[in-house]
Design a protein that fits this description.
Helices cover 43% and strands 10% of the residues. It has 11 helices and 8 strands. The radius of gyration is 40 Å and the shape is elongated. It starts with 29 loop residues before the first helix and ends in a 9-residue tail after the last helix.
Length: 407
C-alpha cells in the first residue's frame, strides 16, 4: 500500500456541528462551537500546515480540543474536591445529581456539619450526646443473691430476644451508697442536731413541719458528711459492681431489708445501648447515606465538567496548548505507522516517533504546571499566605512612629 494514496489530509478549514466530538460534553456551548474550528486551524498550523501536509481530519482536532477541556476540568475539580469535601460530607445528593452542574461553578461555604457529626460520635462515648439510643432496664435484687444476668434484664425491658450478634453495652449502673446526708440530718425527728426553738428565730417556721435548725458554719456540715463517707468506704463493703460477660456482680451482698448490715435495695437500674445500633451509627455517621444517597467521599461529590464559556483566558490558553500537544501526539501515532514514504528517485522519512515523544512531554509539563498553580489555591495554602501577609503588615505597622499626646 502506498502511503501517499488515499491518505486523509487537513484541507485548511472546517465547520463544527453538534455531535462531532466523542462525548459531546461541550457541543451545545456556543463559545466551544466557535473556538473548535479556530483551534483546528491553530493546531494544524502548529504542526506545519500549510508547508507540510497534516494527516488529520477535523474530527481529530475536535477530539483533541474536547480532551483538553476535560483534562482542565478534571484538574480544577480535584482541587475543588480537596477544598470542599469536608464541608459537604453527608449532604443528600439524590439519584440524578450528575444530570445538572452540581457544585460546579458555585461557591461552597464553610460548614461545621461534618465536625458536628464527628463530635456527636465522640459524644456517644463520652456520655454527652450522640445518635445512639440509650435504654434502661432494672434488676430485681434477691437477698443473698449476688450475681444477675444483664441480658435477661435487657430482654425483659425491650420485650424482645437479643441475638448473639446484637449484644448490649452497659453505659451506667445506678448502684450507689445512700447519701450521707440522710444519716447526718433527719428533718422529721424534731430536734435536728440537738438545737431547740431556733426555727421561728430565723423565720423558718413555714419551711417544714416538726423541724428545728441551728445555724452552723458551712464547713462543719461538709466535714461531718465527709467523715460519714470515709467511714463507709474504709470500714464497710462499699457499693460497687463487676461486669463479666452478661453477668453483673453486686457488692455488698444484698441482705434482708431492715437488717443491721448493709441497706437492702429491691431494684438496681442500669442504662445500656445495643451494639448493633452503635455499629450502624459508626457506619452511617448519623445519616442515611447508604439508603438514600449522600456525599461520602471524592467519588460521588457532585462536580461536573467546567463549561467552556465560563473558563477565563488563562484557562483557555492552557486548553489550547494542551489540545495542540494531544493533536501532535495523534499525528505522531499516524506517521509512526510508516517510517518512510517512497517518492520518485528517493523516499521521505517521517517524524512520527518524535511527534509522539514531544506531545507526551508537553502534556506532562502542562499538567505539572497547572497542578503547581492550583495547589496554591487550596484553602490551606491561602490561609498560610494570609497569615504571612498579616504578619508582615503587623511588622510594618510596628515601625510607624507613635504620636505623643501631651495633656
Amino acid at each position: 500500500m502506498d502511503y501517499s494514496e488515499n491518505k486523509p489530509i487537513w484541507p485548511g478549514s472546517s465547520s463544527f456541528s453538534v455531535g462531532q466530538t466523542p462525548f459531546g460534553f461541550f457541543d451545545n456551548d456556543t463559545v466551544f462551537q466557535e473556538h473548535a474550528d479556530k483551534f483546528a486551524k491553530f493546531a494544524a498550523q502548529h504542526v506545519g500546515y500549510p508547508v507540510m501536509d497534516v494527516e488529520l481530519e477535523d474530527i481529530n482536532f475536535y477530539t483533541a480540543f474536547e480532551a483538553a477541556v476535560i483534562e482542565y476540568s478534571n484538574q480544577v475539580n480535584q482541587v475543588n474536591i480537596v477544598n470542599n469535601l469536608v464541608n459537604t460530607i453527608g449532604i443528600q445528593t439524590g439519584s440524578s445529581f450528575m444530570n445538572d452542574s452540581g457544585f460546579t461553578g458555585t461557591v461552597v461555604g464553610n460548614s461545621f456539619g461534618y465536625i458536628t457529626k464527628l463530635s456527636k460520635a465522640y459524644g456517644t462515648e463520652a456520655d454527652t450526646g450522640g445518635h445512639t439510643q440509650w435504654y434502661s432496664a432494672s434488676i430485681n435484687v434477691t437477698p443473698g443473691k449476688q450475681t444477675y444476668s444483664l441480658k435477661d434484664a435487657a430482654e425483659s425491658a425491650l420485650g424482645t430476644t437479643l441475638s448473639t450478634s446484637n449484644g448490649i453495652e452497659v453505659r451506667k449502673v445506678i448502684h450507689n451508697a445512700p447519701p450521707a446526708l440522710i444519716r447526718y440530718f433527719d428533718p422529721f425527728v424534731g430536734t435536728g442536731l440537738g438545737s431547740q426553738q431556733l426555727l421561728d428565730s430565723f423565720d423558718f417556721g413555714g419551711f417544714s413541719p416538726s423541724v428545728n435548725f441551728m445555724m452552723m458554719p458551712l464547713h462543719a456540715d461538709l466535714l461531718r458528711i465527709q467523715s460519714i463517707e470515709f467511714n463507709d468506704r474504709i470500714r464497710k463493703s462499699h457499693y460497687s459492681f463487676d461486669i463479666h460477660g452478661d453477668d453483673i456482680r453486686l457488692y455488698p451482698v444484698p441482705t434482708t431489708s431492715g437488717s443491721n448490715l448493709e441497706p437492702f435495695f429491691s431494684t438496681v437500674w442500669f442504662e445500656f445501648m445495643l451494639e448493633e445500633d452503635k455499629a450502624n451509627d459508626a457506619v452511617l455517621f448519623g445519616n442515611t447515606a447508604l439508603t438514600t444517597g449522600a456525599i461520602s467521599d471524592a467519588s460521588n461529590i457532585p462536580y461536573t465538567y467546567q463549561q467552556y464559556n465560563t473558563i477565563n483566558d488563562m484557562g483557555r490558553a492552557w486548553i489550547i496548548r494542551y489540545g495542540c500537544a494531544v493533536a501532535k501526539e495523534m499525528l505522531g501515532y499516524i506517521r509512526s505507522k510508516y517510517s518512510s514514504v517512497p517518492i520518485p528517485n528517493g523516499e521521505v522519512t517521517l517524524n512520527g516517533s518524535d511527534l509522539v515523544s514531544q506531545g507526551q512531554s508537553e502534556k506532562d509539563a502542562l499538567i505539572t504546571q497547572l497542578r503547581e498553580f492550583l495547589e496554591k489555591m487550596t484553602k490551606e495554602q491561602m490561609l498560610t499566605r494570609q497569615n504571612t501577609e498579616a504578619t508582615q503588615i503587623n511588622e510594618m505597622m510596628a515601625k510607624i512612629p507613635l504620636r505623643l499626646y501631651v495633656g
